[in-house]
Amino acid sequence: MLFGKLLTAFATTLLATVSAVPVEVETSQIGKRDFGPVTIFTPPSTYVNERTLYARSLLLKDGSILTTWENYDWSGMPWFPIFKSTDHGFTWTNFSQAHDTQNGWGLRYQPFLHLLENDIGGFKAGTILLAGNSIPADLSKTQLELYASTDNGASWGFVSHIANGGKAVPNNGETPVWEPFLLEYKGQVICYYSDQRDPAHGQKLVYQSTSDLKNWGKVVDVEANAVYSARPGMPIISKMSNNQYFLTYENGGAAEVDFAVYYKIVSNPLSFGKIQGQALRTVDGHVPYGSPYNIWTPVGPLQQGTVVVNANSDSDCFINHNYGTGNWTRLTTQAYADYSRSLAVGLNPKDIVIVSGGALGMGPTNHVYMAARDVNGCSTC
Ligand SMILES: *[C@@H]1O[C@H](CO)[C@@H](O)[C@H](O)[C@H]1NC(C)=O
Ligand SMILES: *[C@@H]1O[C@H](CO)[C@@H](O)[C@H](O)[C@H]1NC(C)=O
Which helix (H) or strand (E) segment is 27 a member of? Predict the structure, then answer.
């Protein structure tokens, strides 16, 4: 309802002026926002299984937003679609595709986008990195790959193989690798991922790092539970302005609730493995669970910004104003509770960009959409 009003108001200005004078329309579009879901892509009925899932977004320096997702056109080799919005998420176009050029398997699962902040290994700051899982049609292997775009997402090229594992089946005893997440730290890019190859752990979280984007270092534990059947998964990390790093993961087998959202806070993102995680529990006693995501934005009432977390269990986000310690409270959204719904900080850092590909087991209704939320909440926008 409210969104309809906003959209109508902006649509005329936008369509006429957005490419010519983006700065002029910015302020009104990214002030207090609470809207959604805006459809980014509706898959045709020929798509299989979940049709779309696991969407990710990336804000570019010019204010445009890219998004990608697991795209279940499995008629040939799957690819990672790249859709683009130049009006802060109100409208989207099919912009480019990243294709597997190495394995003949396709880019099938778990894409992640990262904008390089520093020059590294011959790649300039501003290069867009795309990590994801290349998997053949019979799901017999998993291969975490790194691709890159040096033209703002218009085209993509292979960079390196990060890690390889066995069958793409999430059962203990199988040996896949899953869910890459990229972070820059002191001249390195660190890739965090879920790893089922260690016979001592059903699944654990690990990282490997690189200083040239080509050669990846040894596998280091991030979270490995002494209980074999535990399945910590889906690592996401944010850097906060106190120079600490906030990690969330789902903790399969947790005492609070299965796949409870757990977090760890460290000063050195190479040393998450040295501390225990703890469950995220809100002041109203709720422990969210399943496929968490987190961001940190500098906007917050205590000059310490806001940590924002979401999970599969809830439409709401969960926010914290003390660098992840102390109280967690709810922030409602107009997005659905979904599988691995992603968050990003918008061009106005108050703006939470929520992008999702839908829920598990909901194939025919899944589609890719965006919702936006003001991190301060808003009752009148
Ligand atoms: C986007 O456009 C490309 C090229 O025309 C097409 O192959 C693809 O099916 C479209 N949709 C998606 C989701 O990538
Ligand atoms: C935390 O929440 C409790 C209960 O709502 C409240 O009494 C307390 O003031 C809060 N503490 C901080 C630091 O916000």
Answer: helix 22-29
Per-residue pLDDT at 24 exceeds 50:
no
Q: How many CB atoms lie within 10 A of CB 55?
A: 29
pLDDT tens readout for residues 187-216: 999 999 999 999 999 999 999 999 999 999
Q: What is the DSSP secondary-structure string of 154-167?
A: S--EEEEEEEEES-
Supply angle C-alpha 257, 259, 262, rounded to 5. 90
Residues forming a β-bridge with 247: 237, 264
Evaluate: CB of 329 within 6 angstroms of ligand 1: no
Question: E strands within 301-367?
Answer: 306-310, 317-320, 329-331, 342-345, 351-356
Q: In what order do the strands lie in the sheet with 231-239?
A: 231-239, 245-252, 260-266, 278-279
Torsion of CA 74, 154, 354, 142, to 10 degrees: 40
- Residue 378 pLDDT level (bands cut at 50, 70, 90): confident
Please name which of 180, 187, 185, 184 lies closest in space to residue 163, comparing C-alpha atoms.
180
Q: 154: number of CA atoms within 13 Å, CB side?
A: 3
Instruction: Provide the 3-class DSSP secondary structure of residue 11.
Output: helix
Q: Which helix (H) or strand (E) holds 29?
A: helix 22-29
Q: What is the pTM of this model?
A: 0.92
Number of helical (H) and strand (E) elements in the chain, helices listed first: 2, 24
> What class is the 35-374 domain?
mainly beta
How far apart CA 218 and CA 73 sit, in angstroms, is 34
Distance (angstroms) between ligand 1 centre and the Cα of 166 equals 29
Q: What is the pLDDT of residue 28?
A: 65
Mutate which of 97, 108, 156, 366 to test ligand 1's pocket (most atoms within 8 Å of Cβ)? 97
